[in-house]
TrEMBL record:
It comes from Papilio machaon (Old World swallowtail butterfly). GO terms for molecular function: ATP binding; ATP hydrolysis activity; ATP-dependent DNA damage sensor activity; mismatched DNA binding. It is found in: Nucleus. Residues 144-250 form the DNA mismatch repair protein S5 domain. GO terms for biological process: mismatch repair. One of its GO terms (cellular component) is MutLalpha complex. It comes from the Eukaryota. This is DNA mismatch repair protein Mlh1. Keywords: DNA damage, DNA repair, Nucleus. The chain holds residues 12 to 265 of 553 of the full protein.
């Protein structure tokens, strides 16, 4: 059963940047306004995300990495109106099958933080009380340690790092109220990359294609990582984009 889950996990998480995407979405779903990401070897050795969001309640920590554990879907009808990124409860479970995963978290209601490690979807060892700030810190170590083919095919830390920059940059642009920091582990923290400043160049272009849709008109059940979604009323959307671009071009020419 672990092998099957591991293969499925490897399909959802193709490279460190995919894992990071899921973790960033969880932080945003938890209303974080500050997200600090630290990586080592392009995320293959070490990938950590620290947020200042709601935290995970102590009594949920033992099940949080089990498949289909989600706090984001209360009833089937909710599927019609999903406005959070997550809802399948598969991301943490998947990551826990193919890495060493540790969660340190504190809610505002708790007096102290709690730390727990996971393996194959399950809690590994006891949950320990410790010091920590409100929010959640998730550390993913040795990603793909048990998926040897993948480990061999992803050899370039530099390439993985550039995928990570791309992911962080994308979320930074679309969430301007959230501070994003990307650091390389072990390097002088003064030279931390401030993603915000590196992506400013692209903002103008990306804004052109910023689509805001009623969540009821998007079917997110097409692809497990939401890499693809199905737009209902696709024709109308395309028409709308066309007329926006035409209007823009006209105003540029006049
Ligand atoms: P999903 O996002 O689809 O619910 P995940 O496996 O990504 O599933 O996460 C499982 C659950 O863990 C979430 O529903 C949420 O309750 C909790 N969780 C994960 N990451 C965070 C975070 N950074 N802050 C608060 N809660 C989190
Ligand atoms: Mg999620």
């Amino acid at each position: 059963e672990n092998v099957v889950n591991r293969i499925a996990a490897g399909e959802i998480v193709q490279r460190p940047a995919n894992a990071l995407k899921e973790l960033i979405e969880n932080s945003l779903d938890a209303n974080a306004t500050n997200i600090i990401i630290t990586v080592k070897a392009g995320g293959l050795k070490y990938l950590q995300i620290q947020d200042n969001g709601t935290g995970i309640r102590h009594d949920n920590l033992d099940i949080v990495c089990e498949r289909f554990t989600t706090s984001k879907l209360q009833q089937y009808e909710d599927l019609q109106e999903i406005s959070t990124y997550g809802f399948r409860g598969e991301a943490l479970a998947s990551i826990s099958y193919i890495s060493h995963l540790t969660i340190l978290t504190k809610t505002a209601a708790d007096k102290c933080a709690y730390k727990a490690s996971y393996e194959n979807g399950k809690l590994k060892g006891p949950i320990k009380a410790c010091a920590g700030n409100n929010g959640t810190q998730i550390t993913v170590e040795d990603l793909f340690y048990n998926v040897l083919a993948r480990k061999k095919s992803l050899r370039s830390a530099t390439e993985e790092y550039s995928h990570i920059m791309e992911v962080v940059g994308g979320y930074a642009i679309h969430n301007s109220h959230v501070g994003f920091t990307l650091k390389k582990f072990g390097e002088n923290t003064d030279i931390k990359t401030s993603i915000k400043s590196t992506v400013v160049e692209n903002i103008r272009i990306l804004k052109l294609f910023f689509l805001k849709l009623d969540p009821r008109n998007v079917d997110v059940n097409v692809h497990p990582t939401k890499h693809e979604v199905q737009f209902l009323y696709e024709e109308q959307i395309i028409d709308k984009i066309k007329s926006c671009i035409e209007a823009k071009l006209l105003s540029c020419n006049s």
